[in-house]
Specification:
184 residues; alpha/beta; 5 helices; 47% helix
Length: 184
């Protein structure tokens, strides 16, 4: 038996890096996984690689910076597997390590669109689903040391600081409904 047998999980950023490794691990541990990312071809490859794992994997291609992706990924989990138990919000981008005086509007907007707004769109839909189910759920947000230490450019650090704040707020606001929300 796997540690996640029967659990229905969404993992964003699943086409590469931490998100991909998380989706693979969850599937090996028996979870039913909805892998989410922009790159459909990579998601198909991941699902194929996991076809013999104890869990199940399907995928949803979308840009987390678009609120419709959050709606679609949660809908896919519920329509395919009947519920949602765990959401790992990993999708994110780095900035170009620019200090505030040289930061372009484009870099600022894109970094927040993906790292902050995308994560918050996901959390909003995940919480709505957990509340509708009435039995709680888990949200794991992939944050960064950049949230508290200046490890990159101004846009990245600020976006991850916002992720940390949104995570703490969500944990506080929904603790009595059994929704756990953590940042890693």
């Amino acid at each position: 038996m796997g540690r996640l047998d029967g659990k229905v999980c969404i993992v964003t950023g699943a086409s590469a890096g931490i998100g991909r490794a998380t989706a693979e691990l969850f599937c090996r541990e028996g979870a039913k996984v909805v892998a989410v990312a922009r790159r459909e071809e990579r998601l198909k490859e991941l699902a194929e690689e996991c076809k013999d794992a104890p869990g199940e994997m399907t995928w949803y291609a979308g840009d987390v910076g678009d609120p419709e992706t959050a709606v679609g990924m949660v809908k896919k989990a519920v329509e395919t597997f009947g519920k949602l138990d765990v959401a790992v919000n990993d999708a994110g981008i780095m900035d170009d390590n620019t200090a505030i005086a040289d930061l372009s509007d484009e870099m600022l907007h894109e970094t927040f669109r993906i790292n902050t707004f995308g994560l918050m769109y996901g959390m909003r839909e995940e919480c709505r689903q957990y509340l509708a189910q009435g039995d709680g759920g888990v949200i794991v947000n992939i944050c960064s040391v950049g949230a508290t230490h200046q490890t990159s450019g101004a846009a990245y650090c600020a976006s991850k600081g916002a992720v940390l704040a949104a995570t703490k707020n969500t944990a506080f606001m929904y603790m009595e409904e059994g929704i756990r929300c953590n940042a890693v």
